[in-house]
Design goal:
By secondary structure, this protein is α/β, with parallel strands linked by helices. Helices cover about 45% and strands about 15% of the residues. It folds into two domains: about 35 residues; about 110 residues, DsrEFH-like (Hypothetical Protein Ychn, Chain: A), CATH 3.40.1260.10.
Length: about 160
């Protein structure tokens, strides 16, 4: 009986040690991970802004800047920010986002607005910052860009 107990205990200890070593290796492998490699010549992303919540707008701008500052994507990324619905509020003159949006445009980001939203909300072009581009449909822009292989990101 003692031999059987000793054998079972040995098996349990050996299994535990093997599992711990496997887990340690997995943790070390994970720690060594530094992200995907950007092997393509060019990457494309369109960010969807359809919410007036300041936290969402701030997050979209922050996410775009993070992508622009990612060293793996340096010189290899084209970004568009398309607003419709509530996201249009970020583009209205007097919003707190004018300087942030100008900075994105100066970094090469296309900042565009859905014309359907303007019509629906009875907003005229002169109510928007003068550097904002206009597209016929925000959804159409997303559909076209996705079909072209662009990543669609909704912060």
């Amino acid at each position: 009986m003692k031999k059987v107990s000793l054998l079972v205990l040995s098996i349990v200890l050996l299994t535990t040690a093997t599992t711990a070593q496997t887990n340690d290796k997995a943790l070390e492998n994970n720690k060594a991970f530094t992200g995907a490699r950007a092997t393509k010549k060019m990457y494309h992303a369109i960010y969807q802004l359809d919410n007036a919540d300041e936290k969402i707008i701030d997050k979209a701008i922050r996410n775009i800047n993070n992508a622009l500052n990612d060293p793996r994507l340096a010189g290899k990324i084209k970004i568009e920010l398309i607003a419709f619905g509530g996201g249009t509020d970020a583009y209205l003159k007097g919003s707190k986002y004018e300087e942030d949006l100008k900075a994105l445009v100066q970094k090469g980001v296309v900042v565009a607005q859905c014309n359907n939203t303007l019509k629906q909300r009875k907003i005229t072009r002169d109510q928007l910052y003068d550097f904002i581009g206009i597209v016929p449909s925000g959804n159409g822009e997303l559909i076209i860009r996705q079909a072209e292989g662009w990543s669609v990101i909704k912060p």
